[in-house]
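WARN retry 2 of 3 for item q-0093 after timeout on previous attempt; input resubmitted unchanged.
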Amino acid sequence: MNTTSLQGFFESTGGQIITVVVILALFLIILRSGKSKKNDTKAVVVCGILVALSTVLGMIVVFQMPQGGGITLFSMVPIVLAGYFYGVKRGLMVGMCVGLLNLILNPYVIYPLQLLLDYPIAFGALALGAVFRNREKFGLTLCYLSGLFCRYCCAVISGIVFFGSYAPAGFNAVTWSLWYNLTYLGVEGAITVVVLSIPAVSNAFTRLRNQAGQPISSAA
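OK item q-0093 returned
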């Protein structure tokens, strides 16, 4: 499948239907992925809300970069919260769902590996920071920063491998990808960390986590 046909597939009705089926399968995994292996309807509802919230916030672009990417209105936070509430596995599923929805809404596909790096893997990587979810101090901030770094790594690799030809004079593929992706992810990350560091905000998310049935004292 060449570049044109691959892009066209995800713009087609058939390609979008297949993507939706994959998203539904991911939600089925969320439903059955608790430690008890019983259906967890509450987790599915919360994760569904977080997927929708991340997708909507991602449409609110504060600043659009010329070669893709941009500063959004805290669109990465809901994915991080999914990991913070429910652990890495369910957070990954939520992030992948968001990535696949972005693939439906705004596809830009040139190679299969680029598709994976820029969509399900990049967004899913935001949940990897959930390994710090049980830290009593700054747990959510550590989750966010670690997840953001993982997404940044995905963006840098994609930029080096697939978009290196866009590097301007004075840069090579590596240095341009490192700098370009830092400019927008770094700015949004810095603003988000400031907001998450506000005691009222962090305490509110802690209460929400407890209401989701995953108190901080529980295991990941």
